[in-house]
Design brief:
Strand content: 15-25%
Oligomer: single chain
Helix content: 40-55%
Number of helices: 13
Distance between the termini: 39 Å
Structural class: alpha/beta
């Protein structure tokens, strides 16, 4: 809400944020505790309790994230984690309408657990710009619960056709498979390849292969995903990325956090992210195969960084 991604005029919040939000400042700077817990200035026992909890958080990393987030009001995602990209840069790439005009399309599919969100991303490379449209899929019986627990108005996004509710308490993969097979006609494109994660999409990939589509497994590892993650960010920053207005897509970008492996390769970390990022992951998978066909084939190097 602070970033303007979601609007709720009914919400009033009084937020206390410390001046020192550095990585280690909370360990020694008492002002962090005072500024984020003003009531503790009036009740000494509360301050003593906070200092005891701080000491435990310093000694026990497993308690650190909870303490820093809950008691210091500092967003803490762990060492080596950072926001993927400012949502304002993403929003600057939104357009009213995209003209796919018979383009070659590269599809990314993120089929998570059947009770969780899934996503399909359609991309094309037109005039050095990545065109993108993303659809989320959620269990129909979980729409109301997910809307409350995640703070996302899925009912509205379903009306806007940015999200499809299918199945009962689990996502109906058959609906996703049919959606992918209808992309050629719906978008007036030619599907070149469909990228998928082996963990949950093997049966769907086999169906697409039987029906004449070419599929490719995209390994969910930093050495594979670093290059498309980097390319997507650069295209967004250079305004060479276009998508039709999609608040749910923007919320996914807002949630996305990046981690680095030992070779400094960055990737969107699902576990460290602040919420659902399936639409971003699906897009990165699509950008991976787009990159192989449209960019690396022209001898432009976007390879994995080496130590």
């Amino acid at each position: 809400m602070l970033d303007g991604t979601v609007t709720d005029e009914k919400l009033f919040a009084l937020l206390y944020e410390p001046d020192d939000v550095s990585e280690d400042g909370w360990m020694t700077n008492d002002a962090v505790l005072e500024q984020s817990n003003p009531l503790a200035l009036e009740i000494p026992a509360m301050m003593d309790d906070l200092k005891d909890k701080r000491a435990k958080a310093i000694e026990m990393p497993s308690k650190r994230e909870n303490f820093v987030t809950k008691h210091c009001n500092i967003i803490y995602q762990g060492i080596g984690t950072e926001s993927y990209i400012d949502v304002k840069d993403v929003q600057a790439c939104a357009v009213d309408k995209l003209d796919w005009n018979g383009a070659d399309a590269y599809i990314g599919v993120d089929l998570a657990e059947t009770t969780d969100n899934c996503a399909v991303s359609i991309t094309a490379y037109i005039d050095d710009t990545i065109y993108c449209d993303v659809i989320a899929f959620i269990p129909e019986a979980s729409v109301e619960v997910k809307s409350k627990t995640e703070g996302v108005n899925y009912q509205e996004f379903i009306k806007q056709m940015k999200c499809i509710a299918c199945g009962d308490r689990v996502v109906d993969y058959g609906v996703i498979e049919e959606f992918v097979e209808g992309i050629n006609e719906k978008y007036n494109v030619k599907i070149i390849e469909i990228g998928f994660d082996r963990r949950n999409a093997m049966s769907s990939a086999q169906r697409w292969e039987r029906n004449g589509y070419t599929t490719v497994e995209v390994r969910q590892h930093s050495d594979t995903l670093h290059a498309p993650t980097k390319l997507l960010k650069e295209k967004i920053l250079n305004r060479q990325f276009k998508y039709e207005h999609n608040k749910l897509f923007e919320i996914n970008f807002q949630n996305a956090k990046c981690s680095e492996d030992t070779n400094k390769n960055k990737y969107v970390n699902k576990k460290r992210s602040a919420g659902k990022v399936d639409m971003v992951i699906a897009t990165i998978i699509a950008v991976y195969i787009l990159q192989q066909h449209e960019i690396l084939s022209d001898d432009i190097t976007w390879g994995v960084q080496e130590a």
